[in-house]
Amino acid sequence: MTRQLAAGWLLLLAVCWSSAGCASGGARMADSAASSPQRGSDGLYRNLDNPQALPSQDSWTIWRRFLFARKEGTVPVDPIPVRRLDRAALDALDPGANHLIRLGHSSHLLKLHGRYWLIDPVFSERASPVQWAGPKRFHPPPLALADVPAIEGLILSHDHYDHLDVATIETLRERVQRYFVPLGVGARLREMGVAPERIEEFDWWQQGRHGAIGLTATPAQHFSGRSLWDRNSTLWASWVIDSGGQRIFYSGDSGYFAGFRQIGERFGGFDIAMMENGAYDAYWPSVHMTPEEAVQAFKDLRGKLLYVVHNSTFDLAFHTWRDPLERIAALAERESLPLATPEIGEVLTLGRPRENRQWWKGLR
Fold first, then answer.
1. Residues facing residue 213 across a β-bridge
2. How far apart are the first and last CA of the chain?
3. Under a CB-based contact definition with an 8 Å cutoff, are residues 319 and 281 in contact?
4. Helix/strand/coil (H/E/C) assignment for every residue in 154-199
5. Which residues are bridge partners to 330 per DSSP?
6. Which regions in the chain score pLDDT beneath 70?
7. What SS3 state is found at 44?
8. Residue 17: its pLDDT value, please?
9. Pairwise CA distance, residues 284 & 255, whole Å
């Protein structure tokens, strides 16, 4: 979120500080939402009880800071390296393996045993309700939206603009066979023209399958909303993806909480943990993780490879753009943790050796 975005959203009176801070979808939503332990009598969703969670500053204090505080080093001066992709390169990837391809921020294309999946895809120039204001990409997507192949499944963690992008969904909606989303997010997709029968909505700990892929929506500590009036009207989630016996964890957006340990205990560990690492701040200490908290969450999850996301694409906080990468790399080296900080467009194949590069070194 930037000063420009804050001003634009205030003028529109449309958006809160969202970026800062298997049955049929209809049947699952109607049954699960009504009985969800996460949903209060007021119809709003809540985080798990966490006495250790520090409170955020009030919304007006955060707004004033975004409008008037000075930022330094939050946007790169030098170009971010991008490995360009095309359909030929994607199709050439081994159909017998699981591949993760970083598109930017938290957006990823997965090729799971020959089938393509998307996680939180955002291809727009800005993470915003409008394209004339808001956080602007540091780099272009490594793959053109027109070149995205037919998608077996699309997974969403929550409804914030840097994770759920209208233009991307509207462009891809006929190319996606199935959408997997937390409770309430299906209504967002239906507003974007997605057929209801293609949507499956999950409460925390609900499981499903699509073809050979197993899915579980797991808890996260965050919030939701796309306007001034709908905060926490939809659920947020992390996700567990099982493909061919390899388990992938995706944190979505989350502060640190005891749920990570519970997830690790239930699943017995993960081949890779895609952990949020960026947009943290003392003004909202419990809805995003610092690098130190991301490392602790990775340990709680019993992950084998720490893969960091939610950085290097949008200016959403007050730390420098390199801070998440520099701190996590130093922590991983000090604690001898296996770390993946892939370049934009880089392909990571699970179970195969790779050399991790600190690609941000020397960039301003």
1. 210, 243
2. 20
3. yes
4. EECCCCCCCCCCHHHHHHHCCCEEEEEEECCHHHHHHHCCCCHHHE
5. none
6. 1-32
7. coil
8. 44
9. 9
